[in-house]
């Protein structure tokens, strides 16, 4: 477990422990968790080059202005994209690959609670944002992440530590509500990271659960249940929400700390007193893939082990062939 004090101490060392000019990509950073994460990362790093991707250009202009105030030495670039569409994801990735030769951090926090609808690519909208586009970004940009000199890390923010059964006859989750689908998609994300880590053992992969955070994930949802839920959150939320700045600090820690090293290589992250190495999803310390709660701890090894033994990991990854159906290729 990493205390908040240890997390803050680690983050304070970023500008000196890591080289200047780190390239970071934040997907879904124009609001919520992504917005606070990008601000804290910019605050602590030395002259970062940050690309942030979202749908709303007007929000992006505000964030870019704030980032320049937080760290005038940094460079900030907004790329507009509807991440629910894999073809749009590919276009953005091609643009990034044309401009950069190495990426130190890929941070994924896109999402929505809208379920039961299909995208024009015939993907479940909820799954398109929660799973397909996240893995597509990771697959497309992994070659550049593998070449980064000091930090090589992929973060996805969803429900780390809350993995559950995978519904083998409904990988896209069409029959699942956002609540019922949490364990299903959490397991798919974590196990997909294990596949990618086998291909790129010099990269760290982290799936985390941020805790009770104020976001706009419920935007656009309909139905009596969601109306009641949103009304309840308005009443009790202020008493339960984790402070926004703290959320960003914790995500920055996940993105940079030595607690989450890759399986091999020297891009281990920022060392800090009192911060030990985390247990990987395979039950070994420092094994490169981590599924963690907001305190940096995980207890999902048994759940994931059963999914591997059942063969669902291999079946799930074969389902990624949906990429081929939609885009014509496994990656750009």
What is the number of strand segments? 7
Task: Return the string of H and E elements.
Answer: HHEHEHEHEHEHEHHEHHH
What structural class do helix, strand and pairing data support?
alpha/beta
Identify the strand order in the major beta sheet.
Answer: 3-2-1-4-5-6-7
Instruction: Give start-end ranges of low-pLDDT stretches.
Output: 223-231
Question: CATH first level: which class?
Answer: Alpha Beta
- C-alpha-based Rg, rounded: 18 Å
Count of alpha/pi helices: 12
Structure description:
The chain contains 12 helices and 7 strands. The chain has helices at residues 4-11, 14-17, 32-44, 57-70, 86-99, 125-145, 182-199, 224-240, 244-256, 301-309, 312-318, 322-327, and strands at 23-27, 49-54, 75-80, 105-108, 153-157, 204-208, 289-292. A 7-stranded parallel beta sheet has the order 3-2-1-4-5-6-7, sandwiched between helices. Strand 2, helix 4 and strand 3 form a beta-alpha-beta unit. Helix 3 (32-44) packs across helix 9 (244-256) and helix 6 packs parallel to helix 7. The longest helix is centred in the middle third of the chain and has 21 residues, at 125-145. The protein is globular, with a radius of gyration of 18 Å. Mean pLDDT is 89; it is low at 223-231.
